[in-house]
Amino acid sequence: MLHRAIATVAEPHSWQDYVVPQQWEAFTADDHAVWDLLFVRQVDLLGTRVVTSFLDGIDLLRLSRPGVPDLGELNAILTPRTAWRTVAVTGLVPDDIFFAMLAARVFPVGNFIRKRAELDYLEEPDCFHDLFGHIPMLADHDFAGMAEHIGRLGEAAIAAGQGERAARLYWHSVEFGLACEGEALKILGAGLASSFGEAHFSLESEAVERLPFSVERAVATDYKHDAFQPRYLVSRSLEATIAEVMALTPERLLTI
Ligand SMILES: [Fe+2]
Predict the structure, then answer these.
(1) What domains sit in the chain, N to C, each tagged with a CATH number?
(2) pTM here?
(3) How far away, in angstroms, is 108 Cα from ligand 1 center?
(4) How far is the CA of 176 from the centre of ligand 1 (A)?
(5) Which of 90, 97, 140, 182 is the most exposed, having the fewest neighbouring CB atoms within 10 Å of its CB?
(6) For residue 12, what pLDDT is reported?
(7) Is 184 helix (H, G, I), strand (E, B) or coil?
(8) How far is CA 215 from the centre of its chain?
(9) How far is the CA of 111 from the centre of ligand 1 (A)?
(10) Cα angle vertex 177, ends 196, 231, to 5°?
(11) Mean pLDDT split into 10-residue runs, the chain, 256 residues
(12) CA of 46 relative to ligand 1 center, distance in Å
């Protein structure tokens, strides 16, 4: 998940500075049990309410295997497929680092998992959000390209002092977007796909706005960091969103 920077940038730094060893063996038996509980619960909850590429990614990446995924094993499938790879990070990364990672086809994964007593409360994204929510879509070749492109747009926007423009675009597509598949409204965003409470809410609540997605609208639309979204942007198809985002240049992003 993209988050607000937690510290101002005092010194030059690179995304590699934020990578830590996963140390998969340090996850406890209860950590693995929590993953299994979350995985089964979320797969049941989603059913077919999520775009088909997401369900394909779950299968392709064998995410249904028990326990917290080993990033090395995951990358052994993901990287040959789309050139994306996961890395472990300790927690929040600043926006400039996050976008630089995306531009390099690297996805940061919080190296911890929520506790059993806090299944639905997250102060920051854990490995269930990052791996279950985000990684399936990165096995889709076209989405994989779009995610890299958003990273490059983000780098350019931050360099121009306009990082929030790229953040809004990311938020309303990769994180909290909805998309049509034929006549059906589906979840696209990782923040919805991995959320027990907001998944159905985003599709079914009558108390929210659902507006057609466009990059112009996404860039101009605020979002909530700490509550369910009051509005969701709905693309007419996953392919349409990918095509529109891929056509967006940094220069255009800065003048919308
Ligand atoms: Fe996320």
Answers:
(1) 15-253 (1.10.800.10)
(2) 0.94
(3) 10
(4) 9
(5) 182
(6) 56
(7) strand
(8) 17
(9) 14
(10) 85
(11) 51 88 98 98 98 98 98 98 98 96 98 94 90 98 98 98 97 98 97 96 96 98 90 97 98 96
(12) 17
